[in-house]
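Backbones bend. Shown next:

***
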Amino acid sequence: MARENPAEKALGLLRSRLCDPNFAFKALSHSDDSNYSKLKFLVSSSITEACNNSILLLGPRGSGKIAVLEVVLSDLLQEYPDMISVIRLSGLLHGSDNCAFKEIARQLCMEHQLVFSRMASFDDNSQFMIAMLRECGLAHKTIIFVLDEFDLFALGKQKLLYSLLDAMQSVTSQAVVIGVSCRLDADMLLDKRVRSRFSHRKLLFLPPANEDIQRLLEHILSLPTDSSFPPDYAVAFNAKLQNILADERFKEIISTYLNFDSTVKHLLRYLFRAVSYMDLESGMLSLENFKAALSNIQRHPKLECIKDCSILELYILVCMKRLEVKEQNSYNFNSVMKEYKSIHDSVKTSDYFARNVCLRAFEHLLQRELIGFTDNRGQNHSIEFSPVKLLVSFHELHQGLKSYGSCPAILQQLMDRQK
């Protein structure tokens, strides 16, 4: 049997790490001030002290709310295997109160090996949940309710939230409610009767700081120096990685990407692309891998469309951008033609086309959705007189002109003046 190439083994290990958010967030969980530590302390103290609690995990999508929660639950299930029962609901799947109570009853029956009745009514499932909270409390077992998309449960009459939080007021119940939402005002959506029973504990998940990013990169991309890899290879790989992380050009690449998207979830996707470019012959990561990944991930459909435009279509796009810079909020094909003629008269360019040719190019830009009508009424009127707008940003247009092989120099100069 052929011996496995250590470079292929390293690539497989890095990819598996990057596909496991729990592994990534363990690097950000060592600090006592981390959300992991705070959440674990809150839930574990509720378990050991037999008290009820409720908490909201708030932050933008991809900020790691669910990943951190899963790490906490995994740790607690190992520490207190017989004292925890986890019930998971999603506002996207169990939005109605009836559906939510039925799902709670189903999961509780599975957890405690009871027979679940599909024909049970709303009141039956509600009473069953309350009874199970009481029985688990007497048995010193904590039920942890995870409500993903918590804000969706706050719609309507909020019967689920009221029944759950009201049942937790009893001294015999023992439960923790953990709501997860990307809406920072999720608690303000609650009715007064529900809000009065909520503990108002909140954890805010923010994009990681620079030092956290550095620690995350080292944690994910470093190879273990145990017997799983040849010692010389692992040491050389980690030394090369440290050189890359210390390189100012690499820091600029990461900074550029984080300006584009600062969530950890998308950073892991970017790193997956980068390690996939690793040269298996050398078996080492390089700065070029991260450059290629950034170039690939920053590709925009509008830029690709601009590269395929004709010279005349580029002139029309630049003319429309000039009209916008002049704060001409409403313009049409005739206005664009006036601007086009003024450019020709000022620089005496040879790239001047007849009006009917320009109109066909204008229609082509409409079809490719690089420009569009300002309202739906424009589709029912003459194209020459219908108000239009540019559908590409200044940055996209400028980058498209720069990457256009035979772009006239005058267009580049006109765009540079608009900066």
Remarks:
- The mean pLDDT is 85.
